Amino acid sequence: MVKTEREYREDICQIGRLVFQKGWVAANDGNITIRLDTERILATPTGVSKGMMQCDDLIVVDMKGNKISGRAERTSEIAMHLTVYEMRPDIKAVVHAHPPVATGFATAGKPLNLALLPEVVIGLGCVPLADYGLPGTPALTEPMLPLIPKYDALLMANHGAVCYGEDVFKAYFRMETMEHFARIQLVAELLGGPNVLPRQEVDKLLDSRTRYGVKARSSGEPGCPAAAEDVGRGEAGRGEDKFYVTRAELIALVDEALKARGMA
Ligand SMILES: [Zn+2]
How far is the centre of ligand 1, averaged over its atoms, from the C-alpha of 75 (Å)? Predict the structure, then answer.
């Protein structure tokens, strides 16, 4: 059922409040858009808190980003949204925010690409990291171009994340799954590092996507998600675990080995 523009405006304001309440944005960060039809995009404007928007604050732009209607100014990040719509005809909504744990991974230069949780392997596959680009310039979207056709959720280095979907709720839920996953991985890292699922289990989860009716883009991308064998972590990678010794311990180990061979 196609919604009215008024209903889409209400959807964006509702998602804006959720994004704000979750703490995924500070001040006027983030932006949310919906594809109204082949010509028009409904968008949050610049300079407004996503938690305090009114339906009439939203603006409508054309597919080149020119404002068609609305009082407020457009966001400088609109070009990123338009690129997603252009490259992915299946996408009807885009959510961009700075969720702190996922953005922490993006700032540390780490993608969320490990096979750790069944729901994430099935739903997202993994979340790759796009290189940094100056916001408000084409440099922001350039590193994302090879990733957009293959994934539905992206980390943006030293910036934030963008998720998209067949409607604005699906886009929002992808970001919620991504941020929840980032929190869990962070806790696992603090507890000594996660056990990554072995390839055999990852393949079973990827196969089960059809059973759950999931059409994740990342299916079949090599290394997405990375299994235990790929990273040498977890039960299957145990033999390759790293260990650390002090200089004195290392000298003692070498001495011992030489003595055992009658060489010292
Ligand atoms: Zn941003």
Answer: 10
- CB of 30 within 8 A of CB of 17? no
Q: Could you tell me which of 30, 17, 250 has the C-alpha nearest to residue 156? A: 30
Cα(177) to ligand 1 centroid in Å equals 19
Q: How confident is the model at residue 215 (pLDDT cuts 50, 70, 90)?
A: confident
Q: Measured in angstroms, how far is the CA atom of residue 98 from the centroid of ligand 1? A: 6
State in Å: Cα 188 to ligand 1 middle. Answer: 27
> Which stretches of 121-201 are assigned E, i.e. beta strand?
129-130, 153-156, 160-165
When pLDDT is cut at 50, 70 and 90, the band that residue 264 belongs to is: confident
The pLDDT assigned to 238 comes to: 47
pLDDT at 141 over 90: yes
- Cα 229 to ligand 1 centroid, rounded to whole Å: 35
Helix (H, G, I), strand (E, B) or coil at 122: helix
- State the distance from the centre of ligand 1 to the C-alpha of 160, rounded, in angstroms: 6
Of 45, 87, 39, the C-alpha closest to 64 is: 39
For residues 69 and 71, what is the distance between their CA atoms, to the nearest angstrom?
Answer: 7
79 CA to middle of ligand 1, Å?
A: 12
Averaged over 82-86, what is the pLDDT? 97
Q: Which residues surround ligand 1, an ion (CB under 5 A)?
A: 160
Q: Which of 21-35, 108-122, 149-163, 241-255 has the lowest mean pLDDT?
A: 241-255
pLDDT score for 127: 97
